[in-house]
């Protein structure tokens, strides 16, 4: 029974982690974490922040590619009005996502620059 429960909970925990990843940056920055780290842990934590920064930049590249693809498709004069509307809606959502990603990148970068990447 315990093995079955673990198999059921693992995807739920994974989905929860992904949902937290895409939370609004302002919300993530509204609480303060008390650091209990010593000087030997700081380089590792900076590496984690640098990895997060790289991950967000890669995500931004993917979203930029998707936006460019939609922009190119919107230039097609043979698009139906419904298809055009759907593409424009998708493009708008991707641009909003891009803005959120930019905020995360800015937030992580500022933490790296100011040496407070110890959470």
Automatic annotation (TrEMBL):
Record's signal peptide: 1-28
Keyword tags: Signal
Top-rank taxon, per record: Bacteria
Name the record gives this protein: Secreted protein
